[in-house]
Write a structure and sequence with these properties.
- The structure is a homodimer.
- Chain A has 10 helices and 7 strands.
- By secondary structure, chain A is of the alpha+beta class.
- The first copy, chain A, has 2 domains: about 15-85 and about 200-240, MutL, C-terminal domain, dimerisation subdomain (formyl-coa transferase, domain 3), CATH 3.30.1540.20; about 100-150 and about 155-195, Ribosomal Protein S8, Chain: A, domain 1 (2-Layer Sandwich).
- In chain A, strand 2 (about 65-70) and strand 3 form a beta hairpin.
- The longest helix of chain A has 19 residues, at about 80-95.
- The first copy, chain A, is elongated and about 70 Å long.
- The two termini of chain A are about 35 Å apart.
- The model of chain A is unreliable at about 1-15 and about 30-45 (pLDDT under 50).
- The interface of A and B includes residues 69, 73, 74 and 237 of A.
Chain lengths: ~240, ~240
Amino acid sequence: PAVVAGVGSAADDPADDAADDVLDDIAQMHLFRRGVSGEDDPGAAEEGVAPRPPRPELLQIHNSFILAETRDGVIIVDQHAAHERVLFERIVASFERGGAEGQRLLFPIAIRLTKPEVELIESILEPLAALGFEISPFGTDAILVQAVPSPHRYFDAEKCVREMLHELTHGSDLMNSARNQNERVAMSFACKAAIRAGHDLSNDEMQELFDQLFATELPYHDIHGRPTVVRLGLGELRKKFGRT
Amino acid sequence: PAVVAGVGSAADDPADDAADDVLDDIAQMHLFRRGVSGEDDPGAAEEGVAPRPPRPELLQIHNSFILAETRDGVIIVDQHAAHERVLFERIVASFERGGAEGQRLLFPIAIRLTKPEVELIESILEPLAALGFEISPFGTDAILVQAVPSPHRYFDAEKCVREMLHELTHGSDLMNSARNQNERVAMSFACKAAIRAGHDLSNDEMQELFDQLFATELPYHDIHGRPTVVRLGLGELRKKFGRT
């Protein structure tokens, strides 16, 4: 299956036509909610700033999918796929900028590694640092993690490092689709660090994920090429109810 | 198409197997929301009353459909179809009890009618009274409406009476499916008085509609035989996202 990896690499994806429609929907999303006039934020109008549109109501289902009304029906967002896309594009941008700041840990984490893992990690210390990891070798079979990125409140740094190292040393379809080591690290991190299915999100967190997803260059696919967004049109809905 | 009209008349409807599953879902719906332990209502436990389960979050889409998480995925409820079912069963029960109280109007409504409508209305004053309408002839070509039922806050009594009289004098598939004049009146009222698509419901109103719908005998079809509830299973959702 085609893997939508690099930013802009899938410009001719046929799914993008449908995707454009969804983007229209998102742009229009706010217009169809209650209290559209911008009265929520009267100060902004006075200052000559465009009033911020009210945000759509979101419903999280099974701590995995987020539903929202659009102009044309309902969209369903896969929270893990969406966050993977957000993280991947953030990492690519961060590589270009020269790296992101991590959070220093009060108590560094020591992680024991296999020999291939130790060899690998010495070769990717730079991209890991650009992600916000501060890692140093610790003897011959361990590392010390002293700072970590913080993509969301459920993030487990040790688990993420272990899963990334496993994927990078053992390979995967995702790793095969990357063009170079930096992209492998970026993809592996995006995949392992993204919020999972099963995590309860607050309304603000869901809103933020929506804002970030629809600000990416390729909002409609995760880095595995799977959809991040599925739509259910009003026509389809009406048909399900025998209203044709 | 088969019309699911009378209470209990569709016991052998093949859709009922799926419907039973949905009923299971509804019964279990609360178990999968946050804060399941009943801590919301600690007093109840002390008094030996079963704690009231927290209510599911509901999302209204296009002022027409209501979405909710269930044990097995998502259900989508058609608000008009659902309310039609609720009203129909309430009317049938009310006929058995001998009628419902209407709301007396401060200013009676005079409605001009055609000759067939006047003839008809004189023959259905009794079931109309049982619905909560207090109607008296007013000259030879009009009626005076002095009390009306109040099924919801958007209810337009005059429009409802006009539409019912039109359907009852001109006939319809729905009218053909009724077994007697009382059932025709009940069906026509349920259809015309139920909340429409396009009406914004508050969270409490949605919750009430859910409670009432799933307390009916035939919650899964409106009186036209159309579905009131459509489900989208987790498996189906995952498949849409390429997660198989």
